[in-house]
Predict the structure.
Amino acid sequence: MHDPTVEIDTDLVRRLVDAQFPEWRHLPVKPVAFGGWDNRTFHLGDEMTVRLPSAAPYSLQVEKEQRWLPKLAPHLPLPIPEPLAMGEPVAFYPWHWSVYRWIGGGTAKNGRVADLSTFALSLADFLVALKRIDPTGGPGPGQHNFYRGGPLTVYDGEARQAIAALDGQIDTQAATTVWEAALAATWHGSPVWFHGDVASGNLLVEDGRLSAVIDFGTSGVGDPSCDLAIAWTFFEGESREAFRAAIAVDEATWARGLGWTLWKALITVAGHDANQAEVGRQRRVIDEVLADHECWA
């Protein structure tokens, strides 16, 4: 989802920075290698980035990150984005936007990760530390994070429609079983902090190891099962088992993690706006989810 009426490019960023932060006028603006989709990111000099929401729903995340990331950072074992300034809406760009300190490293890809099991343990340690942070006053599930941390029932209709649409393409009976098991695995815990979008593109690597976690736009406090999706989208075999052992969640939470992962994969494959490479990747995720449920059922 993005707003095609707002053209986010280096010229727009230049205008925003020059008008609102004239002390940085001398710094060059250029796109990062992968600027994102929900939010667009640009280099500002060598030590900062500018991050702009691409549509109104993502703009709700800016003030949340500005407020909470500085409070979370001291309690975490790895770097996370450090807000330096928040820009204001103007006539030619209607939302708040952020300036962050640049974090080096490349996004996690199998070719960059030295050992997936070690990587899985580092990520689990980070997520456990995140869950231990005092959640008092933290943002609960809502529009700002597309209801991550809330009950899966919010996406029940969407998931079932996607399963029906994929009849003949996937094992719809198995998919329904996994989905209904996730719905039945009701969460009764106290709210904890979660990231909300633990994906390879939000995990940075240096020297083969996990070096930072970025993009807390869908973060909040609530049920942390949505953070388990990486188990099926990136890990497999030994690395998945290492992650599961280290994250130490109960079977019900694992089942809800399967549900979150299945929902996202289903709507991507059943949708009409994903490219074929992404559809193929999400089909493999569906297969992994169904096989994992069968293994532990």
Observations:
- Residues 276-296 form the longest helix (21 residues).
- The CA atoms of residues 107 and 204 lie 5 Å apart.
- The chain has two domains: 10-103, 107-296.
- The chain has a mean pLDDT of 95.
